[in-house]
Amino acid sequence: MTKQYRTREGEATVVDTKTQLTTLGSQTAPGPLLVPMGVTKLIEMIAAAMANWAAANDCAGLIRLEGPGLPKGPEVVAVGAFGNSVATGGNAAAPAQKIPLDVDVTPGNEILIFGEMVGEDIGQVSFGVTLVFA
């Protein structure tokens, strides 16, 4: 079976707050992220995270998947960790990584993708997430 991909991106700017990733680059309103027809599994997540250090703190970046497209409930995956002892206004990247998954999905139903900055507030964490279905 051919793999199918769905991508969203966005920024978490408040610590311990779910921020829905709703845009896709130049597409500011790509519509709901629907599980493709004919698939039964979410087999992989490709995720990248980038942090700016507006504050001298540390945090972790989480991706939370929710919605009716996940019949067994939400999934949460850690995708990066950042920290700095000086507020430099600089940046740090967690390079894109493939994370294997084995999650049942319901075709035609929506999956919501949220990014979260947890721990301490460092300013902003940007996320890019691609879900791979088969």
What can you see in these coordinates?
There is one protein chain. This protein is mainly beta and 134 residues long. It has one domain (4-133): Jelly Rolls (Sandwich). 0% of the residues lie in helices and 56% in strands. The protein contains no helices and 8 strands. Strands 1-8-3-6 form a 4-stranded antiparallel beta sheet, with no helix packed on it. A 4-stranded antiparallel beta sheet has the order 2-7-4-5, with no helix packed on it. The N and C termini lie close together (6 Å). The mean pLDDT is 93.
CATH architecture descriptor text: Sandwich
Order of helices and strands: EEEEEEEE
Count of alpha and pi helical runs: 0
Average pLDDT over all residues: 93
Helix content: under 10%
Q: Sheet with the most strands?
A: 4 strands, antiparallel
**Separation, N- and C-terminal Cα atoms:** 6 Å
User: Which strand order does the major sheet show?
Assistant: 1-8-3-6
Radius of gyration: 15 Å
Sheet-strand content, in percent, reads: over 45%
Write the CATH fold name. Answer: Jelly Rolls
Count of DSSP strands: 8
Low-confidence spans: none
**3D shape:** elongated
- The CATH class label is Mainly Beta
The computed structural class is mainly beta
As for the number of domains, it is: 1
Q: What's the short version?
A:
The protein is an all-beta fold and 134 residues long. The protein has no helices and eight strands.
